[in-house]
Amino acid sequence: MQLILMHIMINLISVASFGRASVVAFSVKQRALYNFNSNNLPRILGTRCFANTVGSSTETKADDDDVHRKHYAISGVGQRSKVTCKTNTNHILEADVPKKMGGGDEAPQPVEHLLAALVGCTQATAVYVGRMMKPRLIIEKIDFDIEAYRDERGALSLPITELPLIPARLQRVTGVVVVHFKDGVEVSEEQLRILGQQTEARCPVANMMHSSGCVMDIQWRNGADEY
């Protein structure tokens, strides 16, 4: 009888220990979903949290991810420093570098295209975010004034066989975004803050630049306060 009671107690202790371990493991995975940086914007990480349920499978997850996957495609031909690209949406883009860098200066620089992509992505995302807010914030137009810099040593350092010690990416992006809302719409400072924060977190270009380590220091202003 004593042996039976001891066996039951050992099993109960094992079950309790496993339960605690499962809870701890689940919490660690859940916390890994977001990594908050200095700008207090969530950076989506690769780790995702899934509960073990009957019928769940890696195939189902893969199918679900594929449904939400947005694809882009571009082809290009380069001659000397200039490249001409065509998107799968039938648009033409050209890039070149200034003459002092050995180029022909016949098109915007690649980094200027990057900043233009940031502006375009911010515009489209802000309109969406404003439309989804409650109450809705209807945006008439947005004025952008954006600057950026990088350390040229990241691209030009020698010898060319050694990786540069300084990153070639943009180090800092600064500027002002002035949002003009539909006439008669009053927007509080808190609403403008949410609009800016959610736009920067949801814009794929801004999110990518931010995750690279580039400091994004962009001020959002209400156009109604500019006059």
Can you describe this structure in just a few lines?
By secondary structure, the protein is α+β, with helices and mostly antiparallel strands.
Write the layout of secondary structure elements.
Elements: H1 2-31, E1 34-36, E2 42-44, H2 58-67, E3 74-79, E4 82-87, E5 92-95, H3 110-132, E6 139-150, H4 153-156, E7 170-181, H5 189-202, H6 204-211, E8 215-222
Parallel strand pairs: 7-8
Antiparallel strand pairs: 1-2, 3-4, 4-5, 6-7
Biggest β-sheet: strands ordered side by side in the sheet = 3-4-5
How far the N terminus sits from the C terminus, by CA atoms, comes to 89 Å
The average pLDDT is: 80
What is the multimeric organization of the chains shown? single chain
What's the helix-strand series? HEEHEEEHEHEHHE
What does the largest sheet look like? 3 strands, antiparallel
Morphology: globular
Strand share of the residues? Answer: 15-25%
- Strand elements, count: 8
Count of individual helical segments: 6
Low-confidence stretches: 12-54
Helix % is 25-40%
> Radius of gyration in whole Å, from Cα?
25 Å
Assign the structural class, choosing from mainly alpha, mainly beta, alpha/beta, alpha+beta, or little secondary structure: alpha+beta
